[in-house]
Amino acid sequence: MQNHRARTAAMTTGLALLLGTTALVAPACAWAQETSQGAAAPEASPTLGPVQNGVVDRIAVTGAERIETATVLSYLPLQVGDSVDSAKIDLALKALFRTDLFADVRIGYDAGVLTIAVVENPIINRVIFEGNKGLKEDKLRDEVSVRPRGIFTRAKAQSDVQRIVELYRRSGRISANVTPEIIELPQKRVDLIFKIDEGPKSGILSVNILGNKAFSDNDLRDVIVTKQSRWYRILSASNSNYDPDRIEYDKEQLRKHYRNRGYYDFRVASAIAELATDKNGFAVTYTVEEGRQYRFGKIAVETELAKLDKNVLRALVPFRSGQIYEDQRIEQATDALTFAAGAAGFAFVDVRPRYTPDREKGVVDVTFDVKEGPRVYVDRIDIVGNSRTLDYVIRREMNVAEGDAYNRALVDRSKIQVQGLGFFKTVDITEVPGSAPDRTGLQVKVEEQPTGELSFSAGYSSIDKLVIDLGISERNFRGRGEDLRARVSMGSLRQQVDLSFTQPRFLQRDMQAGIDAYYYIYDLSNFQAFKNSSIGSNIRLGFPLSLQSYGSLRYTLRSDKVEVNSSYCDPTQQVVASSICNQQGSFVTSSLGYGLRLDKRNNLQNPTRGYYVQMNQDFAGLGGIKYIRTEAEGGWYYGFNADMILSLTASAGYISGWGGDVVRINDRFYKGGDDFRGFEIAGIGPRDTSLGQSGALGGKIYTVGTVELTVPTFLPEQYGIKAAVFTDIGTLGKLDAINKLKIDTTTGAIITDPLIRDNLGLRASAGVSVFWKSPMGPIRLDFSRVLKKEAYDRTELFRFSTSTRF
User: How would DSSP label each residue in 710-735?
Assistant: First the structure.
């Protein structure tokens, strides 16, 4: 008589089994050895009955308490009427053990009766973690596969132990130890306890680099992310702990660093981490082989596609012969050629660079082969990572849909547009296998970031005036991409209330509609000698003209009231400010405007390449005040590397009255503060010097340009501190002639007021801006020095602003 079984399950209290390097204490259960596949290994056991070749007349199941007999039979590859032999019983054993429902199975056959005796695996009641301090329980629960009300098996417990140990290893605790235990409960239930001994963190005692000549040790230590443990690296402590995966990442970072500086033959010969004898840390040593520095040699583009001109494609390659070899230039060229081919109608294109190094001359010849790739269509688009933002908000930014021909250029553009929403920290679009060889899936993986903002800003000037703004906004209201904003400004200069709502897909079409309502009081008597209050609203409509150009329409209706200090307009006083006295009163403005925008930046939030230009024009006179106002601005960006980005931005504007109207003081342009650093609010432009500091009159024309270069701070990225040097240059001026006149109180004659200064003199400033992503929100500090100004301009040396996001 024979018996076949896969494992033994003896209900023995206090029996402990070894799990890898940890012990699994089983007061109620013990498990026998497993095969390398996780299934049980057959072994001899007491017989259930003689095994003979024959036919199954009846199947009897014993030992099943929680599991229905029908469920056991559904997994069994034998049925009544089947012939039976030893091989089929072995197959049946393995099938039942693969279900993970049973701790023990025995099968016997005698006189036409197939007997199956089972011992069920227990159900997990609770999963408990003890001793964890460095890692939160939620993080551990996400890592393990066992769950309450799930089936308990030794294989799952062992696998989860290794998962937890690996998680601690990645956090720098290389000596962490995990001991799982179970506690038997009634009704075949168990509590599973993971007892954790975290151990000390394994720091980095030293980081050594051997074989480097072109770059110093310090230069290369800045390239890699593994850092030597130091007391002052509190905010970047995770990089000061040993992690083998981080060592591999460092090797790739070193390769990129050298290959992007001409070292085509560079390789990391070895990366060794040696544990100190007292096990308190590791010494990491990288051995590199630099090779010589290469330059680009011959550059060619080859294609057999008739509609593509290889000479035109060659002009798109962003490097020339004789320049230092850079891997990233090759990637940029590949993207540019792929985009150009896609724009020419080739949805299926394959661009592959071929390298031919000449080690004697120190050059690398590069040939780009542009071929029509296999025809591939988009099978499906999966959105992952968005817990708050609704799927359709992301899908509507995609330029490809299910069933479309795969086009790399459109996919790249889609990524830019999704990133441009500003809802996500990162956006990655990757290809995944489709349902057929000519089908591909696209996985859009996003990492959400805070889209609400509770803001606070304060400006400090040389005349000790403080303006405080409080605002709340949500750029992804209800997860639908709607923009809702409310702002209250309180301070000595202004009181303001703004409400705004924007629907990004008006009427389910590619149109953006919005409405604004506002009420504000500007008491800028210290700058402009008048008080202005305004209440109004405007309606907006925006729409795309092409993939990278946009148009907009708007209508504005508002009521303004201008009040001037009575002492300035008293004819009995020595000073009569005619320049502002005739501006008093209440006025209605009804205007219609439009805007045009072309945006070719690679990232709408943090651009490193590309440019944008836009123009806005408003026509007032549908009732009330009459004027035409035109404004334009643009910017160009170029990133030398991740830390150095050059930006050139400029703006200009002009306003003029029509139908006999002159431009009123509250409609003119004022520059200074945030939009012209180094000068106070309304610090430049026409001024009535008889009014002292409060004499700003505003101007009809302005132009401001900015050159800004972000510079490395040599601080760890985790600190969130960036800096930039800048230069602002521009001018503001040109009042209407009537606003320069005054009445001579002695003779009654109308004369030009010599105390009103107005010219288009050049102004310039330079300085440093510091940006810090602090725990309470982003902080910006501007330190400025004025290089060129008019004698009547008002300056400031320092400006501060901050906001908090949620």
Answer: EE---S-GGG-EEEEEEEEEEEEE--
Over range 283-300, report the average pLDDT. Answer: 93
CATH code for the structural domain at 458-805: 2.40.160.50
Residues paired with 625 in a beta bridge: none
CA distance 617 to 594: 6
CATH node for 123-197: 3.10.20.310
Q: What is the CATH number of domain 203-289?
A: 3.10.20.310
pLDDT tops 80 at residue 275 = no
**Pair of tokens at residue 265:** 């033959």
* Rg for the chain, CA atoms, rounded: 37
Give the model confidence (pLDDT) of 100-124 as tens digits. Answer: 888 888 888 888 888 889 888 888 8
pTM: 0.52
Angle between helices 327-343 and 244-259 (to 10 degrees): 80
Contact predicate 626/658, CB 8 Å: yes
CATH topology of domain 377-448: Ubiquitin-like (UB roll) (3.10.20)
Question: E strand or H helix at 409, and its extent?
Answer: helix 408-420
What is the separation, in whole angstroms, between the first and last Cα of the chain? 72
pLDDT at 87 over 90: no
CA triple 264-265-270, angle to 5 deg: 130
Weakest mean pLDDT among 94-98, 638-642, 727-731 = 638-642
* E strand spans, 27-167: 54-55, 58-62, 83-84, 102-110, 113-120, 123-130
**Least confidently predicted of 17-31, 312-326, 758-772:** 17-31
Coil vs helix vs strand at 551? strand
Spatial separation of the C-alpha atoms in residues 610 and 31, rounded to whole Å? 64
Q: Which residue has the tokens 């003890």?
A: 130
> What is the model's pLDDT at position 531?
78
Lowest mean pLDDT among 235-244, 259-268, 600-609: 235-244
DSSP H or E stretch at residue 473: strand 466-477
What is the average per-residue pLDDT within 602-608? 79
Q: Which of 477, 486, 424 is nearest to 454 (CA)?
A: 486
3-state secondary structure of 40: strand
- pLDDT at residue 23, as a whole number: 36
The pLDDT tens digits for 692-705 are 666 788 899 999 99
Q: How many helices (H) and strands (E) does the chain have?
A: 11, 40
Alpha-carbon distance of 245 to 259, in angstroms, equals 21
**Token pair 């029996």 is at which residue?**
15
Which DSSP state fits 692? Answer: G
Indicate the residue type of 741. Answer: L
Identify the pLDDT of residue 461.
38
- For residue 536, what pLDDT is reported? 94
Q: What whole-number distance in Å separates Cα of residue 27 and Cα of residue 635?
A: 71
d(CA 303, CA 319): 19
Q: Domain-by-domain residue ranges, the chain?
A: 4-120, 123-197, 203-289, 295-372, 377-448, 458-805
Equal CATH topology for 4-120 and 458-805: no
CA 118 to CA 58: how far, in whole Å?
17
- For residues 623 and 588, the answer to whether their CB atoms sit within 8 Å is yes
Q: Domain 295-372 in CATH: superfamily?
A: membrane protein fhac (3.10.20.310)
Fold of 4-120: Ubiquitin-like (UB roll) (3.10.20)
User: Chain centroid to CA 601: how far?
Assistant: 16
Our CA angle for 415, 338, 249, nearest 5°, is 60
448 is written with which tokens?
Answer: 């959400």
